Write the structure tokens for this entry.
Amino acid sequence: MQQIPLEQALGLSALLFAIGAFGVVIRRNAIILFMCIELMLNAVNLAFVAFSPRSGVQGQVFVFFVIAVAAAEAAVGLAIIISVFRHKESVDIKNFSLLRW
Amino acid sequence: MMQAGTVQAVQDMSDTAYAVSSVVKVVLTFTVVMVVVALLTLLERKISAWMQDRMGPNRVGPGGIGQPLADGLKNILKEETHPGEAAGVFFTLAPMLSIIPALVTFAVIPFAAPMPTRWGVMPMVVADLPVGILFLLAFSSLGVYGIVMAGWASSNKYALLGGLRAGAQMISYEIALGLSLMSLFFVVGNVGLPQVVWTQQRMGTWFFFTFAVSFAFFWISSFAETNRLPFDLPEAESELVTGYHTEYSSMKFSMFFIAEYAHVLTVSALLATLFLGGWDIPFLQRDDMLGFVDGRWVGNVPALWITLVTFLSFAIKTFVFIVIFMLVRWTVPRFRYDQVMDLGWKIMLPASLAAVVVTAATVLALDSAGVTFEQRALGFVPVYGGVLGVVNVAMLAVVVWAMDRGRTLSATGSLDERRARAKQTARLRAIELQTAERGES
Amino acid sequence: MLLLQEAAVHATSAAAGQAGESFAAFAPWLILALPLLGFVLNGLLSITAARRALPALPPVGDPHWDAHHEPSEQEHHAHGDDAHPAAHADDHGAHGHDAHGHGPKPATHTLPSFIAPGVLIAAFAVAVVNFLRMLAAHPETAWVHEYWSWMPVNDPTGALRVGAAIQLDQLSMLMTLVITGVGSLIHVFSVGYMKEDPGYPRYMAYLNLFVFFMLTLVLGASYPLMFVGWEGVGLCSYLLIGFWFKERANADAGKKAFIVNRIGDFGFLIAMFLLFANLGTLNFAEVMERAPAQMAFGGAVVTAVCLFFFLGAAGKSAQIPLYVWLPDAMAGPTPVSALIHAATMVTAGVYLVARSATLFTMAPVASLVVALVGTATAIFAASIGLKQWDIKKILAYSTVSQLGFMFAAVGMGAYVAGVFHLMTHAFFKACLFLGSGAVIHAMHEALHHTHSDMDAQDVRNMGGLRRYLPVTFWTMGIATLAIAGVPPFAGFFSKDEITGAAWDGAHGQLPLAAGLAKVGIDGTLWFGLIWGALSIAAFMTAFYMGRMMIYTFFGQNRTGEEERKHLHEGSWTLTLPLVVLALASTFGGFLNVEREVPIVRWFDFGQGEALHRWLHPVLAGADQVAEANGIAGAAVEPSAVPIAVAILLGLGGLALAWTMLSRRALRTAAEEPAYANGVERVLYHKYYVDELYDRVVVRTVGWLSRLQAGFDRYVVDGLVDFGGKMSEWLGVALGRFQTGQVNTYAFAILIGVTLVLYAFVHT
Amino acid sequence: MIILFWFFAVLAVSSALLTVTRKNPVASAIWLIATFFCLAAIYTLLGAFFIGIIQILVYAGAIMILFIFVIMLLNLGNDYEPDIRGHVWKVVAGGTSLVIAALLARAFSGELPAPLGHVAGPASLAAQTADRGTVGVIAIPLYTDYMVPLQFTAVLLLAAVVGAVVLAKRKV
């Protein structure tokens, strides 16, 4: 079985990361923003996993932690979105600017 | 039990043979499953009729055997309705999404002992994934997408409610489902389903006894996962019309139906595999084989007749579970929604957590005591599985009799509610009395 | 390395076990644990009592609330409040007679009466068992047992290893006996003296805690452990001086004691650091073993160590110039003064010097300083004592003076004499203090009945108490004879040994004299001076003690008609300790008499000088050092002169007091002026030392503090405020970038990531 | 293998792009799930079976369900407001993202640093998998070398659960 070249996997990771970052900048829907962030996290995960055939299993362990943290983040983030939605009737982040000067 | 001398006789398949056999297995399995599903609809109607003392379908073919075909034809030919407000693509996507996971899950279930062929020994499982049980958990959790999306895309409040209910219910019970399987990992030591079957063979006890708590919880959860009575809240006719598939008609509706029966079939097969020894034939030692581990054959020599008999064994076990599914449908009334959630979160989650801990402790104790799977007391009583089983049955008894205390398993509501109701009645009666007195005076 | 050291430690302890093979310590930890247990129990009781005494609703704006509304135990608050008659009068008016009902006391105020003395007596019993075993075995080396490792610091230069270890040898045994024995008696006395006080359980808890720390101090096998006890007793002293902390003056006295002691502790710490830096250990056994080898005789290091240790000792034992806290410490309850500020804690300094005898022998200059400071303190404090009117103040200055005697002794290398005097002093001074407590107790009760606002502690207000308090009179009389140095009472022998040592030194027959000669100082003149000064101090001691006794017990009673009816002896808990201590003061001196004294031969006390022989193993190290450096004392020629002088001075002082005062019609405080002429005035005002300290130290520090406060306020705060303002402006300016739009932030982060990546790729 | 990888890679990138650009949140979510599936496949191709299945189990099966759930609960999917920023933003952000992608690709294509880690070393993943099993290969370092992070993660998850409940509760 032929191994997948490391560079290609990493390139994919970079591309996905850039797409996610792009989404974070241009979207204003808080939920979609979250999803873009998840996309970026996944891009990083891919990089970790891509290294693991070469560098051992630690990369995968880290991915495990990233997934756990992502789950926690999603739970809290979505709860925040729900509670904000109750007040503002919207999930558009231009309404979430309470903490500015 | 293992016969080491026969290792050389068994050949592994070449890559090409493997690929060809895989395709054959996929096609065959799919066909068989679809046919069985079709027959299951008939079976259900027959059993329902039997339970209600009626005849059931009996017009198409002898004993109504052609009824599924007729139903299929009707559904294909019927007009498809598409609500104007429905969200286009998702409305169409939803039935597909619900049928796929049910079918895909079947891929990891071994349905017979490995079959010797001219090109080597063929494992009788579509895909012996190294992540077997996890694959199962992962894909069973995907079934919820189809239902949720169907409910949402219909733009119908009943459908949406049904979809949300289904989502919440399936997520809730998935936790207990996963946790109940955790205990099995301790003993099996791997997550492949063939290993599960093999471990049951070596241990001499099936897991329905060894992991009684897991068995009970998995079974209950599987009712919830298939949305069958008493957990059919997503499609509760009396409350939500028919829930998430209210707006569906013809083949799309049919696909939900097929998905449900496919799910029942898969879950029954899983229950058979995980807890009733899979294709293991009771009291027969010839079927004790695992497969190739690092290129070496582990277990007895495979033979064609063994494969056939074990398949029969597997089929019977699965059938037993299917029938029970259907019998339960007409036996137990539907839960109320809060009861469902109570059972899932307040009883099954803590109980399965506790069961995991106790089982882990027992396994640790047994391992430290140096007890092996093969060990037998009095020549035939399995020690390892026996001890675990006794512990588990005791735990199950504790769960059922001490923890529940008539809160969830009782059909008439929780103890608190009954008290509250009694109080309310008393108050109403007092008010009545007062008004009566006032009226008199 | 560490293992080797450990092995070595084990080997030495094993060797120690072999040398005193028949000495097996009997649960010495119990001696420590019992008072601690008492503290815990009493502490819990006191917390319970405090809980119960909590008000339901604290009234706002009523300063007298405490006095009025505390539970009924408050009613006899005034009884314990001996140091503050003004407050007593105040209280009095507030209560009236109606508050005097004797209701049943809650368990929190009855249990301590059994717990506190009980644990002490038990500890004393354990100590006695150990003492008897030690007496039988007479081990040559100390018994050291490490219970657990307390401060193991594994630094590369050489591990600091301080274990929670108990050292039992003849010196610590003696101290333990004194502490637990005298402590038991004083605890019993406290039961009678304090049981009406609302803070009774708290008092007993503190007292137990004090004993625990004091025992830690003497039983600890290393300087750090000793320091723990040292600080602990300081803490308890502070707590007990300020026991009636509702009075500002008491709290201040506590603080004064605490702060002055800190100066001394600083010295102790520096000495420990120096020791560790030079010897690499702080355990007594190892220090005494390594010191002669690793430090030069009379060198700067050992001298500095000893001087710093002496600074610590001066703080704790109230030597010039740090003695000022002790007279103020009389603000505490009288049994506290007896236990802490006369019998035990203040002698810790003497114990420290005796414990470090090896070091002090190696540092003749430091020893001479110790002796001179001790002598100066002795005569200085004695002279102040001449003109004090407060009975406790007289005793306080007497204590300072007697501590001076002890320091003079240990300074001159007469360690046994110092320890001997420490012991006898513990007996007679405790007796005197307790007696004064009994007197004050009686006076208070009498004055309380008539609501008089006379000072219950002023000797001018007493007079003729002999008839009303006979037991107190006789016991205090014995103690007075003892402190005045009248043979055959205890004080005579111990004090005589000290003056005798000075006499020997003046004739060059002391090892220290030889040691001084070795570093080029002629010590004989100094020792002569010391002898003279100590003799004068002894004479003054006899005089002021006689004066105190005469004012208190002789002549006309000056309390007044009505009060006189209420003067009576206290309960047995008050008198029993007095009697026991009086007996000890009478016969305690025979512990260390020379064989030549007739009475010793008469009673056949063995070879005589029992204490000398008893303490010999402890001081063996010092002797070895002296021998190794060729300064071991020449054969002492016994001389009758110092003995004769001592007897004459003691009797003479008492006689002078009798002739000067007894025939005069003594007058009350209202009639008798505090002082008559300039000398008396200076003495009455304690040489204005407190005022001097106030002017020189306190005010200077105050000015410096104000200066520093100004610097802090204007310069430091200004800078900080400027920083604050700056960030405020910056915040206002930079805040504009906070658009509140997450996208913008994300974009900013993205730009940053890009830059970092660029830098990463292009380097 | 390579072909499969490219197939899934192209699929992943296109569904990621669709995730970012779809106006409908549900559509975005569905496409994101598709991306996750592709990634799971790629993980499996890379030999990380366990991570691949966990990706589906956790991301697709739990996290995304939550997203969809919330979207539906708030009923955002039907009358969604257009929420994509203006063209200037799109161009600038797109440009920056491309620069980042290019820089990352550049960084990855250069001399990669030597494998870090002393724990398992660079021993080939396949050998370790054969030795310890699919799950064991992750589980053994997870429960030995990474025990403390694991515990912290557990605490974090618990905190998140409690936090989510408190936040989403109507009455506290």
Summary: DSSP finds 31 helices and two strands in chain C.
